[in-house]
Every structure is written in C-alpha cells, then in structure tokens.
Amino acid sequence: MLTSFLAAPLLLLQGCATVSTQPAASAAAPTQTGIVSAADPRAAAAGIAILREGGDATDAAIATMLALNVVEPQNSGIGGGLFWVRSDGRRGALETIDGRETAPQAATPDWFLGADGKPLPFPQGFTGGKSAGVPGAVAAMAEAHRRHGKLAWARLFEPAIRLARDGFVVTPRLHNGLEGFGRNVAGPARDAYLPGGQAPAVGATLRLPLLAATLEKLARQGPDAFYKVDNPRRIAEALDTAAVGPSNMTAADVERYRAKERPPVCGTYRQYRICGMGPPSSGAITVLMILKQLERFDMGRLGRNSPVAWHLLAESERLAYADRDAYIADPGFVSVPVAGLLDETYLAERSALIDPQQTLTSYDPGHPAGAPPKIAAVPQNDQGTTDLAVADGSGDVVEVTTTINGYFGSGVWLDGYFLNNEMPDFDRVPTKDGYLTVNRVEGGKRPRSSMAPTIVYGLDGKVRLAIGAAGGATIICQVAKALVGVIDWHMSAQDAIAMGLVYAPGKGGTLEQGTELEAMLPQLQALGETLRVAPLGLKANAIEYVGGRWVGAADPRSEGVAMDVAGHVTQIERRVTGARE
Asked: Tell me, what's the pLDDT at 289?
C-alpha cells in the first residue's frame, strides 16, 4: 500500500498548484484522524502509513524521521541529533526530550584552535572528525517510543528500509545539495551518492543498500545496535581516522550517551501559551523573548505591510540574540537564568530600549536575575536541518527538529549514514572580552542550538499550532515571524511560513531576497536599518487546528508537504526550488 501512496505526492515536486487542503470535488472525504507535515512527501507518506495502521503521533514522527534519513540525507539522520516536543491530547501534559549530540570527553575549549592559538581553517573545523559529536537521534527516538509508542519498534523502520532498498527518485533539492556540497562526501559515500563523480540527475533512482542493512539491524536489535557491542568502536574509529581533522572520540563516549528529559520552556504572548525546548536549545527562550519584547506594540494594527512592524521585529531579534549568546548553553555545565530571561519585568525593560523610529547604536546583553558571574579567561595554548509535525486521532501532537548540521554533516560516512558536524555549534573561540564564553567546548557538553520545535496553545487550552524550522540561527527568527503572522496578523500557518523574513541577530542583518519585503528596503533604511538583501536558506513545517480540523503547512522554499490520513494533501506553489536549509 505504501508504494502506491508514495507515488502521488511526488507530483508535488513540480509544484504549480496554489495552496489547498481540500480533496478533489468528486472524492468522498473520509474522517480525518491524523496529519503529518514534513520536508519531503515520501517521509510524510511514511508517517501517514503508520497512522493508518493504528500508530500514534510518536510512532509516526519516528517513521517520518527515519524516512527523511533516506530521502533527505543532506539534512538529517541517525548520525545526528534532535529535540522532541510532545503534547498529550488526553491529559494536556507537555514533554520534551533532548537528543542533542555531546562532545567527546577529550574535547577542551581549544578544540578548534591551532598551535598558534588561532581558529583552525574552515575545512578543518566545520567538516571532518573533529566536527562530530556523539549522535543522539537514535537514543531520543528510542526513549520517546519507550514512553509512548503503540506499534512495534521494528514496524516504524519499514517505510525507510523500503525506500533505501528499492530506491527513490532524486529530487531537485537532493541533486542541488550533492552538486553544491558533494565536496563533503568522501570515500565509499561518493560511490553511493555521486556515481561516476557526478550528482545523479533529477528524476534518477537512487538505491542505498548499505543504509537499508543498517536500518534493518536497528529495527531488529533496537538502540543497543547503535550504542553497544561493536558500533561505538566503529563510530570512534571512523572519526579518529578521518582524512580531515581527526578526532579523539572513544567508544566509551558513544556508550555513555543518554537522551535526557528536560523541563519545557513556556511563556505567553497575547494570551496564547507558547512552549518549546529548554537549554541546550536556545530556541524557545529566544523566540519568547522576541515576542514578549514586541507585546507592548500594536503589531496587529501596524500589519504585515508596515516597515515599522518589521523594524520592531528586527530590533527585538537583536536584543534577544544578545542575551542568547551571553547566557544560554548546556545546563549541565552552565547555570542558565531561564526564569530571569523570561521575567516579564526584565523583558519590559528590554522592550523599552526599542524605538519605533530608529535603530539602537548597540545591542548589549542585559542583566537578568540569576545570571551567573563571568569567569575570567585563562590563556590557552552551513546548516542542514529538518523539521516535522504530527498529530494523531487522540489529539497527541509531536513537533521535532532534527539535524546533522551542515550539508552531509561532517562528511564522515559509516554504514550508509553521515555523522554530524555539530561541534562547530560550540563557540570556536572560547573567550570574549577577556571572559570564557558559556558555550565553549567542554568534554561531554552539548552545544547550544537554535532549533525551536514549538507548540502553541489557544485560549481554550488546546493545541492551536505546532511549528518548527530549519536554517541554523535563522530558525528562531522564522518561528517568531510565523507566530506574529498567525497571532497578530491572523494569517494561516501556510501564509505565515511563506512570508519573507528579516533576520537580524546583531547590528545590520539580512532582508530575504525575492520576497515582498524587498520593496520596503528604502523605508527600513529611513528608520536606520542597514540590512543587506540576500537569499536565506529557510525551511519550515507546521500543523494548525482551525475550523474543527487539522490543516498542514509547508515552506514553499522547500519540497515539503503536509498530508493527512483522510487523503488531503497540502499543495504549494514553489517559490524557490532547491534553496539551502
């Protein structure tokens, strides 16, 4: 059944239809009992197949991620990590699982510094063995399944195994990724993904028998096949003997990995309750800071066509990112002042710095309650991510952002999957202004992340929206912008995702090229903005509950879709084909 179900969504890759979530007029509309939004139709179809067999949102999310590992290997996979946010439809309970990668125990703050004390050249730091942390995705999926899965663990692997073994069609995004970043693919992986040294053509069929065998092993043996027996040694060996930047990882680093439940981070914006992942993710905290700093402004009256509204959003981003960089890191190593950063009085003080008529001259971090003292320094000798949202017939909602970081991660390939390059998410230089940075490299530490899987509750206390994004540090701004669009400007999630972006993590920033925002540049400049116009590699997915049913949303910049068990498929007019995440 799955094979035939996969065929129709492939037509969406040509993408010429307008946004629609309605079935054909002549078709009967069966009762909707679940929905999946993902960055590839084959992955969304895998999740739907699981829902149709009686699986829940947890099962479907795992199956979707595993299928993404096959069809979107440049962005995610079992060699990486994830953040998992789940809302229980029966009890209303919220749960978050941290599957973020960890640094090898041998890692020190000078991990990315050369003998001269300067940062290593880009290839040695961003790719190769030293760039990889211990993968956490499999452990997090297993923990989520242990808690809430309904179907057998092995069943969740079947769609991905079938895709890898029988083959799948190469899409423009995968072709472009291999063509542009194939330099990160070395050794046996080149034979698998770049036959004859060339990126396979769009429409060609790619088969990955080695990945299929690895997934079959994980399906049979469970997570122990990844974190026990011989696999930890093989991961460490692959990274420690890498041609570029060999690491110092050990088998014990892999064996000791554990996914962790974290306290969710929640706050309010205009009476909506917004929840997400806590540290080491900076996503939820920073999104909430951006929104709360905007709350005193009448964003609804200003509207989406107001340059002042976008200026306010940019200024709020800058202030929030200054605090993010100063205070948020792995809570196992740093005392993160979560309550202080989200304190309403503190955020009102930060908001008071924002002038609707001009930009600030500087954007320094504030002084939230609970901020740890700075530690004086002692002298020392691209982004590939994906997101998915799932709801089942019981009202359970799962929002996951998962990644291997840069395109094809570290480029180190083992048993059919790529190992991540998350270590550069640490601060490459461990000091700033004479003090140690909170996000410096340390053994066993999890690097700070911008991933922001988010669940929004409406005034009735039920889930109104689940949303997340890919795109490195832009993720926070993508989610915050979309929430302003939905809450203040009464847009659909689809239209809010498709809307252009101002990305301003510091002075200056970027105005997304090819969007409606370009026309505002002169008016923004009159407000003191010094934004450059450039493409932004964006990719978001969402589901929202409106009109008594779930409706999906996917980014027109990507190949993503949303589909539900009843047969509705969100069709999107593609704005940018093959854009980077």
From this structure: 98
